């Protein structure tokens, strides 16, 4: 029985890679120093895994930016626009081409855009999207995998296992950049390069090679299934003496089980955390000789494994196929977990005893191995921790549990239907046609960030800090009034992050000091941890919203983060279903909404940018998720009177396939990101005849560019051809936190002028 690991966090124990990359980008360290920093991280990781007794230690899981981009470079699939960089970048400076593809290139008189980035399955990790053309050529371009394998071999010997993204998933993760072909058809020209790579790795000594094929756990077309058969038949025929391990994760194989177990490979990894029930099906179909890697330890969360759940899975598999054919492993790469729990000195020790980060998860792999081999003590220690967690007063809040049980349908419904509310709200706020607003945050300048740092260091008292934040708030209100915006926001200067700010004030939440997880490139996030029943001991935002409302006669929008976004961007409990945690957070937000209403705030926005990314990977599981997610939102929003206006906001979303559920959220107003797609997204709303009010973003906030009045008027005219004019709001695509003041003011000024022109050009009756 082997102890297997699929991948390890690559930032280093103290985010050394982040620092090194950023210093290299700003010219503060040399390429050699950057490479040296990377070498150290890799060696530390390998040593750690060898020490933990891991038999198959991943290498080439390290990446300076992203493992998919590494594949693109290895396979020479370099988009044509980078050709000029190829010639300015001298030999041996492959890394500069690599970073140019990741981040764009504005040097040497060139201005080349970066490759697109998108989310890696249902994680918060972003990968760089491969770009394909109709006659896409592949060849070995980057030698990184060979160098890294040879390096790992020095430290781990035969245990070193190179990891590559498998050919089918690599193609499916990419995009066609021209019409007239399907990327999956490139499999024939791609596979020979994989064969060459695998042969070379074999020649250097590799015994096992891991090919990640997460798409095996997704819905596949017939053609895609055929591509799997073709690719792996070719690879295994041409490289008969290499042991290929195909890794699947994040969901069950389901209808792809037959396909997956019959690939002519040496081993198959399955995710038994997300889908423990798939073990039976796999065991029923597994052909003789295929080895199984059992992903029993959660690679997506921070909790200690419950051995009483993992052990039966392992013993069942052993009984079916024999010990020699079994490997024990985490469910997926540990990339998605923080590095080391030992570094957390401030977490309550009772709770810390329930947790495990990447390093501890390796120890769990080894512990399970020992338990299977008769060690009872390790099992008992684990079960004590599991039992302590179950019965702890810290996880259990009877009042919250009771409240969850007594939620009724009425809690998820506004008092009246939208048309009634709309009329009452119109009477109350008397807003003009095309009312203007913003999404919430205003520039988080260095000054603002420094205030927070100083407060933390004790260089500012709370009172001094609050006063400075009040000044920033007042200033932003004056700016909005001068520009002539209709519905104001307070600017969110008091918030560092839209989830952390609420997590810090909710009971049942904890924060780590060093629990960083890579989000994209050098960017890391530190998700808060929900460990217990969530409740709201006090008002969270009323102080700032009321203060802001007192400064102006215009309506001031209250700003909250919605339950699904808070859930999605946190590490959540694994001892209760996600929907239960979602409802607990929803009730806390509901109470805050009501408190804001009572404080005189008549318009309240509940942001839900993460609702779409929470969608399950398999379409069959969408309805149940959407059901509870929409309901959680509605619970949070429905405690108010009819004349209180609830807004919601979403960014980066394609809504076409879930428009019905977006409508079911029943927000009075939804603001969405649409400017980059030239209102294309709005068509989904128009086709559906979306009944409530909509603010389609009229300018892109991701760039400092100031949009002209005319282009925004054009967008509004376009919107008015699709939707009833009296339902249209005017706002930017998203919050303005990353922008600077001058461009913000100029852009909003133009936006307000555009709304005024639109009011003159487009009058209600004709357009309905
Ligand atoms: N209210 C938030 C802001 O303006 C919304 C952020 C978001 O959609 N991601 O910053
Ligand atoms: Zn947004």
What does this protein look like?
The chain has 768 residues and is an alpha/beta fold. Helix content is 44%, strand content 12%. It starts with a strand and ends with a helix. 49% of the residues are buried. The structure holds glutamine and zinc ion (ZN).
Fraction in helix: 40-55%
Biggest sheet: strand arrangement: 1-12-11-10-9-8-6-2
In the CATH hierarchy, the third-tier topology of the domain at 2-6 and 44-79 and 115-391 is known as: TIM Barrel
Q: Biggest β-sheet, characterized?
A: 8 strands, parallel
Q: Structural class of the secondary structure composition?
A: alpha/beta
Name the hetero compounds present. Answer: glutamine, zinc ion
Unreliable stretches: none
| CATH C-level label of the domain at 2-6 and 44-79 and 115-391 | Alpha Beta
So what's the overall shape?
A: globular
What is the rounded Rg?
A: 27 Å
Secondary structure layout plus pairing:
Layout: E1 2-3, H1 16-25, H2 31-51, E2 57-59, H3 67-74, H4 83-88, H5 94-103, E3 117-119, E4 126-128, E5 131-132, H6 144-156, E6 160-165, H7 167-173, E7 175-176, H8 187-204, E8 208-212, H9 222-238, E9 243-247, H10 257-261, E10 267-271, H11 278-285, E11 291-297, H12 307-321, E12 326-330, H13 349-352, H14 358-372, H15 376-391, H16 398-405, H17 418-429, H18 446-457, H19 462-483, H20 500-503, E13 507-510, E14 517-520, E15 523-525, E16 529-535, H21 542-550, E17 557-561, H22 563-568, H23 578-598, E18 603-607, H24 622-637, E19 645-650, H25 659-664, E20 669-672, H26 682-688, E21 693-696, H27 709-722, H28 741-761, H29 764-767
Parallel strand pairs: 1-12, 2-6, 5-7, 6-8, 8-9, 9-10, 10-11, 11-12, 17-18, 18-19, 19-20, 20-21
Antiparallel strand pairs: 3-4, 13-16, 14-15
Glutamine (GLN) is lined by residues 439-441, 492, 498, 559, 607, 609, 649, 651, 734-735, 737.
